[in-house]
Design brief:
262 residues; mainly alpha; 2 domains; three-stranded antiparallel β-sheet; 56% helix; elongated
């Protein structure tokens, strides 16, 4: 069994950068200019004093790990070609390391993935807290607003007697007309070009257009809340009035159709 000392590596090191790692010898891990890390140093950081033996064992038991690495020779006297890996490879290798380090990594990754599958909103809050890029934060806010307005409008359509049948699908009809008004194209056309199954997550739909979607749906929900709108046709007519106003405003301020340049 390979010899171990107290482990130094933790998963936050993956998030905060390799520079937070410290090896048992006191030195920092070897890192390439494109931010790949020495596999031997990764293994050593888990507490093993003979990383080459552990690496040979991993290659024997899990041959796929060799696809995660490239050989690289760091500068300096006595340096030899050694395997290096990126962040994804770091995580995968860490899960396979024998003993407690691998157990801890697997447990934390399973916990996080389970939270993701369950739609745990605290994960979103954690990611927002770690985000410093203003544009990314603006995009997250616009996307959250657009999701909220979608749910609010859906509830308003239901309260007004909207239908969801092949003959008359109120939800799909309103959504389709909103896409034409706000984005200038139907969902399928946008998805075909932008390469995402969700229109609101499409790379073509920027934060300004997401904000317009939010505004359109909130105004439509407000208009439907008068209590006087009932049934499929009345709902569609009411929402069309709002969507038409938004389209005029969009064009007045020079916001083009999303497919105008594609």
């Amino acid at each position: 069994m390979p010899k171990r000392v107290q482990a130094q590596v933790t998963l936050p090191a993956v998030r905060h950068g390799w520079q937070t790692l410290k090896l048992s010898t006191g030195r920092r891990p070897r890192i390439t200019s494109d931010n790949r890390i020495s596999v031997m140093d990764v293994i050593e950081a888990t507490g093993y004093t003979n990383p080459s033996e552990v690496w040979d064992r991993l290659k024997r038991d899990y041959p796929q790990v060799e696809k995660l690495v490239n050989d690289f020779q760091f500068p300096g006297r006595g340096q030899r070609r050694t395997p290096v890996t990126d962040r994804k490879g770091f995580l995968e290798i860490l899960t396979l390391v024998p003993g407690r380090p691998g157990d801890m990594t697997r447990h934390e990754l399973v916990d996080k993935y389970t939270r993701y599958l369950d739609g745990d909103v605290s994960m979103i809050e954690e990611m927002i807290d770690r985000q410093d890029n203003v544009e990314d934060l603006e995009r997250v806010k616009a996307r959250a607003d657009a999701r909220l307005s979608q749910k609010i409008l859906g509830a308003a359509i239901k309260d007004c007697g909207g239908t969801n049948t092949k003959r008359a699908n109120t939800y799909a009809t309103v959504n389709g007309r909103n896409n034409l008004a706000v984005l200038g194209a139907q969902a399928k056309a946008i998805q075909a070009v932008g390469g995402n199954s969700s229109t609101r997550d499409n790379t073509l739909v920027d934060k300004v257009r997401l904000s317009l979607i939010h505004t359109t749906e909130m105004l439509e929900a407000h208009s439907l809340g008068s209590g006087e709108v009932r049934g499929h046709l009345a709902i569609v007519r009411t929402c069309d009035t709002v969507a038409s106003d938004i389209e005029s405003l969009r064009r007045k301020h020079g916001i083009s159709d999303v497919l105008a340049t594609h």
